[in-house]
């Protein structure tokens, strides 16, 4: 029972932190940036949902961002706001999933401590402070910035170890990232990275595979468990591919897309 619970926790940790990954723009001027992520079932190819990313970027750095999730019919199912201005890898954020009566986030970063927010329909407000772990630390979508900052090391074959703060679990966990091969995305060469628990639990938990552009350091594709519920099962989609491609699939429905309702 304890091992099963640990495996469930690790899967949730990976999901919560990595499915909100925002792509960083490289332009020097302040601007608003919008792009999309397109999620399909990794095995069947069935279209599942769309991510709409909206960012405020200054001097090449994301300052604030909003990620809105729409199901295959175009209905909004979740929304997250992020603020990276105080800390690039540990953003202040708030995510709301109305259908589940669920809220999580980080409300403050100060004096080596985080103010974690968690509210559920079943247990109410469970918020609490958490000491920031020593060493390399990221939280939620700040993980993408951690990967970008360490991409030269990863491309050179080094393994990057870090703690990942997960507000939904009110805790931090130890992970590692490494390059496991080459990939191709829209006809261009890319790097395939793998993220997994930095413990023996990695033998029991499926890893996450991430495809990055080695030049721009942009996240191009995600493969792994989702944080969005399958309405048929009321459980998260187990195996998804999220592509941050230039051209949307015909099935994608979200504001700003030609296929949107």
Descriptive terms for the model:
261 residues; mainly beta; 16-stranded mixed sheet; 18 strands; 48% strand; globular; disordered N terminus
Explain the overall architecture:
This protein has 261 residues and is mainly beta. It has one domain. Helices cover 12% and strands 48% of the residues. Strand 7 (113-120) and strand 8 (124-125) form a beta hairpin. It is globular and about 45 Å long. It starts with a helix and ends in an 18-residue tail after the last strand. Residues 1-8 have low confidence and may be disordered.
Domain module tally: 1
Total helical segments = 2
Proportion of helical residues: 10-25%
Query: Roughly how many Å is the radius of gyration?
Result: 17 Å
Choose one word for the global shape: globular
Stretches where pLDDT is under 50 for at least 5 consecutive residues are 1-8
Structural class call reads: mainly beta
The main pleated sheet reads as: 16 strands, mixed
Strand percent estimate? over 45%
Order of helices and strands: HEEEEEEEEEEHEEEEEEEE
Mean pLDDT reading: 88
**First-to-last CA distance:** 46 Å
Number of strands: 18
């Amino acid at each position: 029972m304890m091992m099963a619970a640990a495996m469930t926790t690790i899967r949730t940790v990976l999901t919560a932190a990595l499915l909100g990954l925002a792509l960083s723009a490289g332009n020097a001027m302040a601007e608003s940036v919008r792009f999309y992520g397109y999620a399909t079932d990794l095995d069947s190819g069935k279209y599942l949902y769309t991510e709409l990313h909206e960012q405020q970027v200054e001097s090449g750095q994301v300052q604030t961002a909003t990620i809105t999730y729409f199901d295959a019919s175009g209905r909004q199912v979740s929304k997250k706001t992020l603020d990276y201005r105080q800390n690039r890898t540990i953003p202040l954020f708030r995510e709301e999933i109305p259908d589940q009566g669920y809220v999580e986030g980080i409300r403050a970063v100060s004096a080596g401590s985080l103010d974690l927010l968690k509210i559920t329909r079943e247990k109410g407000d469970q918020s609490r402070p958490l000491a920031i772990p020593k060493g390399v630390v990221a939280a939620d979508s700040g993980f993408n910035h951690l990967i970008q900052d360490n991409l030269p090391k990863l491309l050179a074959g080094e393994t990057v170890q870090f703690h990942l703060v997960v507000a939904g679990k009110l805790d931090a966990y130890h992970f590692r990232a490494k390059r496991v091969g080459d990939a191709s995305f829209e006809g261009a060469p890319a790097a395939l990275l793998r993220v997994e628990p930095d413990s023996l639990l990695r033998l029991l938990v499926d890893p996450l595979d991430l495809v990055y552009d080695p030049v721009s350091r942009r996240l191009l594709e995600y493969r792994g468990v989702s944080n969005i519920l399958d309405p048929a099962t009321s459980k998260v989609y187990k195996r998804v591919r999220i592509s941050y491609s230039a051209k949307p699939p015909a099935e994608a429905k979200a504001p700003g897309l030609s296929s949107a309702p």
